[in-house]
Each structure stands twice: as C-alpha cells, then as structure tokens.
From TrEMBL:
<keyword id="KW-0560">Oxidoreductase</keyword>
<dbReference type="InterPro" id="IPR016446">
    <property type="entry name" value="Flavin_OxRdtase_Frp"/>
</dbReference>
<keyword id="KW-0288">FMN</keyword>
<dbReference type="GO" id="GO:0016491">
    <property type="term" value="F:oxidoreductase activity"/>
</dbReference>
<dbReference type="InterPro" id="IPR029479">
    <property type="entry name" value="Nitroreductase"/>
</dbReference>
<feature type="domain" description="Nitroreductase">
    <location>
        <begin position="9"/>
        <end position="165"/>
    </location>
</feature>
<keyword id="KW-0521">NADP</keyword>
<keyword id="KW-0285">Flavoprotein</keyword>
<comment type="similarity">
    <text>Belongs to the flavin oxidoreductase frp family.</text>
</comment>
<dbReference type="Pfam" id="PF00881">
    <property type="entry name" value="Nitroreductase"/>
</dbReference>
<protein>
    <submittedName>
        <fullName>NADPH-dependent oxidoreductase</fullName>
    </submittedName>
</protein>
<dbReference type="InterPro" id="IPR000415">
    <property type="entry name" value="Nitroreductase-like"/>
</dbReference>
Amino acid sequence: MNDTISLLMNHRSIRKYSDAPVTKEQVETIVAAGQMASSSSNVQAYMVIAVTDPEQKDKLKELCGQQTYIAECPVFLVWCGDLSRLKRAAERHLPEKQSYEQTTENFIVATVDVALAAQNAAVAAESLGLGIVYIGGIRNHSQEVSELLGLPELDYPVFGMCLGYPDQNPGQRPRLPQEAVLHWEHYRPQQGEVAVERYDEVMAEYLRERTGGAKDTPWSVLMAEKLVHPSRAHMKSFLRDRGFLKE
C-alpha cells in the first residue's frame, strides 16, 4: 500500500458539492493529467468541454435526466470521443487517399481513449481534494447534447463528469470479490459464479443499511432487471448519423 493506491481505494462518487470554486488552473492541471494516459497509437482521439456557465449547466442537467448535481457542481466536464481531428489530418496530408475514421475499430479506440484519459483526470482531481461523479446520462439525448455543445460529425459525448469540492462523505459501495474478475491462466466460470453469490449477500446487506431496510435486492437480480429493459436504444442510429460504424 502507498499513497497512490490508498487514494484509488478510497474513491467515492460525490453528488453534493460545496460553494468553493474550482479554478481554471485546477481544471487545466486535471485535464493535463488526463492527457498523460495511454492512447492507442498516440491518436489521442478525445476532447473535453468544461462547462461553468449556469445556464449551460442547467440545460445539460435537463438533458441528462434532471440530475441536479450537474447544475450545482462548479465545473461540469463533458468527455467526448473525437475523430474529426484525425479526419482533418488525413484530408490535409493525404487528400488523395481514402481514410477510414468511421470504422468500428476507430470508434472503439476513441471510446477507450476517452475512458483512460477521464480516469486519469478523476484520480488527479481526487488527489487535489476534489470529488467527481461520472454522468452516463449525457447519452440520454446524445443529439441534443451534441448540438448544444457544437460537436462536429465524428465527435460524440461519451460521459460527463461533475467536479467540485465534496460537501458529503458517502459510504463506499462494495465491489465484486476479486475472484469474479481476476482469473489466472484461463477463465474459470464456476469461480466467478461463487464470487457473485457471495457478492449478492454483501450488496443486499449494504442496501438494507443504506435504505433503512427499504431495499435489499441482490446485485445479480438488479443486473438482470437492468438488462431486460432496453437503455438508450437510440445510440446505434445516433452513432451512424455522426459518421461511425459504417464499416
């Protein structure tokens, strides 16, 4: 155990923020740390839009399912996959060649690049005493968000991130036992199933304590319920309209 691992192990999603401002310099430092994350072939296929304007944050709150902490946090970061930058490079340097920025592989590369950079940034923010929460709801109305932020074709919002000084100290949600996710030499399904059964008991107790006995649904039941209800079914057509997944 060292300071870095302790910081990582202490992560909590923060949904309530103090009035203390987050400076432009802090945001730039946090994003700089994000930029040092690994990137496939150094393509760096992402960009970040920092939103501080109250009216703009309020509009994003509405588009993300009325999550109030988007409007209340000092800075809301929108992490975007960005392949328009690469397309412009191809057009500038190899205009006579066909480029393939729209492929599924490049979509995966951009999405992974976004996630790696954002997680670096999240750790950097927490090291400065700030808190974050990821906002997948940015994809609830992907087209409207893209228009609001002025995103060009081949750019798309992947998730948002609230940023600010914590005004709460929430409990830490238990994670799956490591046996469910770490397998040596080859995948061992029975090992994973036993671990999930243990985790169901842990999560049921966690929910009982957190809700005062109102909920105690096991994790695997929650996941089953999640999968039988389609979520954001518009994403495939949205991505095709943005120029992706055409090959």
